[in-house]
Task: structure prediction
Amino acid sequence: MNQHAILFIALCLVQAQSTPLLRLPEEQVKLGSGDNPEPTPFTVQLKNVKNAEYFGVISIGTPPQEFRVQFNTGTADTRIQSIMCLNVFPGCQNHRSYSSWLSKTYTKNGTPFSIDLVFIEEKGFISQDVLNVAGISIPDQLFVEVVKKQGPIYDLVGFDGVLGLAYPEKSLSSVTSVFDNIMASKQLPSNIFSFFLNGNRLSPLGGELMLGGTNPDYYDGDLHYVSVTKKGYWQILVDRIQTDDGYTMCSEGCQAAVLTGTATINGPSKDIAAIHRIIGAFPLDGQKHSVDCRSVPRLPEITFYLGGKEFTLAGKDYILMERMEKGLVCLSTFMALDVTPGYSEWALGVPFIRRFYTVFDRDNDRVGFAPVKKPVKPPKPGAL
Result:
């Protein structure tokens, strides 16, 4: 997750620590046990907080300790708050913590771990324990116990940690990721995972992560695939980006990372400034821009061309409505981020994935997209 997206989340979200946990599936499949001779996909139902934050539940340890995690394609590491994360750090408050001494399957590792960016700082160490996601039990998963968290995001978000779904190249801890361990176990019918992020805040179904397959209940037509151009992030080539009045960006092609943990769509500052000028956005404090809420139905469409196919966002897709001290505010989810050419100049975050069902395919190193089906079916009774 890039620093601008982190700041945006910190400014836009309210505390969600009172949100009840989603229930884990009762059935557990142990890796390599042979209990699942005909692999089938597994699903995690996601909670939607203000159309910007989506998380699901995993467990670690024996007996299981449950945690709300963001399933993040921007990192390969799994990081969970430790019981040793002191309340002197505001980011350590109001979140569930892992207690190694309560687990019979814990194994000490202790390798130090740290992240130090402009807006966040994390310190911790590697631990090993059984981890369960979507009913799949991974016996000896290495993960980060976080003992220090500082930054504006931590005391605002509703999740307790992050489960990384990027390529191994994006691991700062240099340990095998959860999904790579699942792939090695051959428990899935195919080594893919897919996201549906519901844009309806009032729906009891916030979204779904499917491991090993796709769910046609949530998308229309066929999936359109684009090859990964650089492993690490799920980085793809964008042919060009165009507004419906003809303004063109990325005219000679550009790189974009598809990021489930980023609440914004990020791009070069000159292009984001042009978009804000075209949609009539005006600056608020920090990196935020806003539009007149009455104008949202009339805002121009913005189209991303991926592998020769059009993927169009309307105003309602890229504007986030938030209630602030001044009343209802309509925020642009476009945010400036300048990076070295050849890398991910653009980040297609949550606003894009809410509009397009997204499939991450490790078997073929590609990302698939299809329009989200509306309306979507509600979850089965008792699933949340």
Notes: The helical segments are 3-12, 178-185, 269-279, 315-318, 350-355. The longest helix spans residues 269-279.
